[in-house]
Amino acid sequence: MPTEIRELTTDGEWDVAVPILRQLWSHVDDAFVREWREEDDYRLFGLYEIDEPESGHVDSKAAVTLVAVAGVSVQRVLHHERHCWVHDFVVDEPRRGEGLGSELLDRVSEWARDRDCEHLSLACRAGNDEGREFYESEGLDAWGAVLEREL
Predict the structure, then answer these.
(1) Which residues does the UniProt record annotate as the domain N-acetyltransferase (predicted)?
(2) Which residue from 102, 48, 26, 105 is spatially nearest to 71, judged by alpha carbons?
């Protein structure tokens, strides 16, 4: 099925994306997730599947379904020069394992290269072995560990 990746900028696009983002952020409410739109550098991209109507149906429109999202920003930190930080990366749970995550990660990498980023970086929650295996299979290497303290 053909796909399309585009930046999500409208309220309607975010309305569709929030339930997918909440698969990762299940412990917060929708309002918290929507606040990310106000962050200066946060960009949200969506991978859409396009189900084209059968040929010959003049009045038919393609069905477009959001199946994955990636929230990113361009940053500079001590351990890397300019890089793309992936804050959120979620493939809709029933669609995992179909190659959609690989496609979205490739497109986000392309977007980052176009902005002169030297690396694509992310944090993978401890215990998320399936996620870590996916990222490693996509060529991401463990560089270190993210340590944090609750404040």
Answers:
(1) 3-151
(2) 105
What pTM did the predictor assign?
A: 0.86
Residues 56-90 pLDDT 10s: 555 567 789 999 999 999 988 766 688 999 999 99
The structural domains of the chain, with segments of one domain joined by +, span 3-137
Please state which CATH number belongs to domain 3-137.
3.40.630.30
- The answer to whether 72 and 86 are in contact (CB under 8 A) is yes
pLDDT in tens, 89-103: 999 999 999 999 999
Question: Taking CA 67 as the corner, what is the angle to CA 142 and CA 88, rounded to the nearest 5 degrees?
Answer: 35
The answer to whether 104 and 79 are in contact (CB under 8 A) is no
